Amino acid sequence: MLGISYKRWLGWEPSYRVERDEHRRITGYTPETEWDETEREWMLALDDYEHSLCPQCGMPISVCHDEQTPFHFTAEAGVCQISLMQSLKLDEWKKDHTNENELKQSALTVGIKPR
Q1: Three-state SS at 105
Q2: Taking the chain, what is the end-to-end CA distance rounded to the nearest angstrom?
Q3: What pTM value is reported for the model?
Q4: Hey, is 91 helix, strand or coil?
Q5: Which pLDDT tens digit goes with each residue over 22-41?
Q6: Residue 15's CB: how many other CB atoms inside 10 A?
Q7: Where are the alpha helices (DSSP H) in 10-73?
């Protein structure tokens, strides 16, 4: 989930309705709702879509769990250079920190930054 509405992400800002008392003094403001019916429907549709994807490969479950898929697709092997860099850095860290416990080593992460 985005955490903000799609329209807010696109730059939308709410308008405010001014509330006044019988002497026309301002007593408050009511903002336009950010999560209107359309925004909620967008997020529910996104949630439905994300749940239709295989957690292993990210393809639609209707495709990747179909036993006929190998007859319609081919696979190509390649080396992900980012994953390779991460693996090398993890191995380097583990060699330099041999006394660290196994639990800590299993929780390591590697950030990638531009040079």
Answers
A1: helix
A2: 31
A3: 0.56
A4: helix
A5: 999 999 999 999 999 999 99
A6: 9
A7: 37-51, 61-64
